[in-house]
Amino acid sequence: MVGRMPSLHCDILRQLHEVAPELTALKLVERQHPASGRFVRRRRPWNDASTWSIDLSRFSHLHRFLLRTAAALVDEDDGESKEKELLSVWTAKSARLDYITLWYLADSAADILRLWRRSFARGWTVLAHASSPSWDQFL
Fold first, then answer.
1. Any residues with CB less than 8 A from the CB of 41 and at least 6 apart, and which?
2. pTM for the complete prediction?
3. What are 14-39's pLDDT values in tens digits?
4. Which of 59, 74, 120, 133 suits a disulfide with 82, CB 3.0-4.6 Å?
5. Is the CB of residue 12 less than 8 Å from the CB of residue 48?
6. What is the 3-state secondary structure (H, E, C) of 17-34?
7. Beta carbons of 102 and 56 less than 8 angstroms apart
């Protein structure tokens, strides 16, 4: 069907929930295409923030989520505040999800890594930030 993502990518969180519903931490790493060494260009399931929020909320024990992608999650202008808005949508239905690490534009000159923490008093705040991060910072 034109304009729809393959169900494998669209339903990744649902599929994970079927086999591991009590996950407490989840790290998703977008891999490079092995033949060319380049990232495969495709629509990503988190682009639909509302559905992604519902799917994240299925994990009632999840308190830490990490995502690494070559994609731009937000526009670079005022990226931090736009990330905060995005996280607020993603986690609107997730009561226990308190730590999120985003590493986007990975393997590019403009890559960004931010570790976020949610508190009820202040909402989402940045705990750490790195430009040109290394894998050991993605914990």
1. none
2. 0.83
3. 999 999 999 999 999 987 665 555 55
4. 74
5. no
6. HHHCCCCCEEEEECCECC
7. no
Averaged pLDDT, 32-49: 67
Check: CB of residue 72 under 8 Å from CB of residue 104: yes
Q: Which amino acid is at 57?
A: S
The Cα 93–Cα 139 span in angstroms is: 24
Task: Give the whole-angstrom CA distance, residue 115 versus residue 102.
Answer: 7
Distance CA 94, CA 107 (A): 30
Q: Could you say which DSSP state residue 41 is in?
A: P
Express each pLDDT in 53-99 by its tens digit.
999 999 999 999 999 998 889 887 788 999 999 999 999 998 899 99
